Structures are given as C-alpha cells and as structure tokens.
Amino acid sequence: MRLRGGAAAAVVLVFAVAGCKAETTAGSGGPEETGGSGAALTAAESLTVKGRAPRTGYDRDRFGTAWADTDSNDCDTRDDILKRDLEDVKFTGGDCKVSYGVLESDPYSGKEVTYRRGRSQVDIDHVVALSDAWQKGAKYWVPSKRIALANDPLNLLAVDASTNRSKGDGDTATWLPPNKAYRCTYVAAQVAVKKKYDLWVTSAEKSAMEKVLTGCPGQKLPTGGNPTAAPPRFHAD
Predict the structure, then answer these.
(1) How many percent of the chain have pLDDT more than 90?
(2) What pLDDT, on the 0 to 100 scale, is given for residue 34?
(3) pTM of the model
(4) For the segment 29-52, what is each residue's pLDDT rounded down to a tens digit?
(5) What is the dihedral of CA 215, 224, 179, 220, to 10 degrees?
(6) Which of 200, 55, 206 is nearest to 135 (CA)?
(7) Strands 113-116 and 98-103, how do they pair?
(8) pLDDT tens sequence across 57-103
(9) Phi-psi bin for 165: left (phi > 0), alpha (psi -120 to 50), beta?
(10) Which of 40, 49, 44 is nearest to 201 (CA)?
C-alpha cells in the first residue's frame, strides 16, 4: 500500500538526500519494493546489452486483447490498476468498473488528476512500452508471454494522460518523467520489468539507467505482479 502521513514523510526525507522519492504501490498483484538497498542499480548493471531491433511486425494485437483479465478476478486489467492507484474510487454496476477516482499525485507530473469514465484525463501506462519491448526481445516470444507483459501490474501505472503522451515508446535514454522526484522509482520499475521478462537494453539505455540510479544508490527493486505466461485461454495474433 502507499505510504502516507508521517511514515511517508519520513521515507521521502530519507530519499530526498539522493534526489528521489520512495514510493511503493501495492494492490492485487501489484509491485512491492524488495531486494535490499541498491538492488535496482545492481539489477540495471546485470541487464543484457544489444542493439534495438527493427520495429517491423509490431502491432498492439501481438500482445493480445487490451486489458485482458489474465489474473481471473473478473475485472479487466485497466480497472484493476485504476482501483489500485486512484483514491476516492467510485464504481458503476458492482465493484469492477471504475467510474470516478482521483490520482492525488500523478507520478509523472506531480499534479492532482481526476478520473471520470468516458472523459478520462488518466492513462494506464506500460512503464516498458510494448513497442520498446517488441524491439528488445518480445518479437521472439510465444504469445502467452507477450499477453502477460501487457497485463502485468508490475508494468502498469495510472498517470496523467497529457504527460504520458509525450513518452511515446521511449526508453530511459529518450524519456524520463518531468517529475524529477519520481525518476528513481520509474527507472527501477523499468529495470524490474526488463529483468523479469529477460528483455535487453541498448547501451545508451543502460547508461541512462545507471546514471539515474547512481543518484539514489539505495533504491530497491520492485518485484511481484503476475506470472510471465498468461493462462492458455488467452490468444494473440
């Protein structure tokens, strides 16, 4: 769960020295910061380096139907993440379909953003963009692994839509959140996803990751999320 109140202030104060804010988001299958102090930098240093493969053949459908219920909780993945990341959540017709909520402090911009279904200012971002993953290993995977990546809570985050649109399919070398206090957490999440799914990084990307994480040497590595293979009932083109 997110740290709030005095506990949150204490954690933020500790990480402020390194220029980063510690933030842990928990929830159904959500990430947890584990692995000990400095685990994120150590993991970044261990990532395989290769060149970016061509984008040829990429299509969103190669990662399955958007927001598939791969964790079988009868709610689609998008609503799972909205429930996890928003406050003051309201539902339509049960406890799955989120109709309203507030992103009290958007990770990417730092501002408060209101979610209203049908005219949302909130995106669910793939921290490691699917196109980026495609060019760094995912094009060679079996479909069940691509579906798992697209719906893994470890790789998903509710964020301000307008800020997210500037990211595109960028990696750490080409895009970082404007909210500098979140950059260590963001990069650690990218490292965690790439390590979990055995995705490679470019030389420039790895250097950028290490540069950010060197500024917060105590940054932990997020873990958790869903298995790296979706249930066999799910299919992708």
Answers:
(1) 83
(2) 58
(3) 0.86
(4) 556 665 667 899 999 999 999 999
(5) -20
(6) 55
(7) antiparallel
(8) 999 999 999 999 999 999 999 999 999 999 999 999 999 999 999 99
(9) alpha
(10) 49
Place of tokens 């083109």: 237
Contact present, 216 and 186 (Cβ < 8 Å)? no
Q: Please answer whether residues 132 and 170 qualify as being in contact, where contact means their C-beta atoms are separated by less than 8 angstroms.
A: yes
Counted residue by residue, the chain has a size of: 237
Both structure tokens of 58: 């990429």
Q: What residues contact 86, with CB distance under 8 A and at least 6 apart?
A: 98, 101, 102, 103, 115, 122, 158
Tokens linked to 151: 């719906």
Tokens 């104060």: give the residue. Answer: 13
CA–CA separation, 37 vs 31, rounded Å?
Answer: 16
Pairing between β-strand 221-224 and β-strand 156-160 as defined by DSSP bridges: unpaired
CA torsion 82-75-116-180 (nearest 10°) is: 20
Quote the DSSP letter at residue 195: H
Cα atoms in the Cβ-side hemisphere of radius 13 Å centred on 189: 28
Q: Going by DSSP bridges, is the β-strand pair 31-34/156-160 parallel, antiparallel, or unpaired?
A: unpaired
Rounded-to-integer distance, Cα 93 and Cα 156, Å: 24
Which alpha helices (DSSP H) does 17-157 contain, by range? 39-46, 77-85, 130-134, 143-151
CA-based nearest residue to 228, from 202, 206, 204, 195: 195
Where helices occur in the chain by DSSP H, the ranges are: 5-16, 39-46, 77-85, 130-134, 143-151, 161-165, 183-196, 203-214
CA dihedral 40, 45, 48, 49 (to 10 degrees): 120
Joined together, the tokens standing for residue 48 give: 């395989």
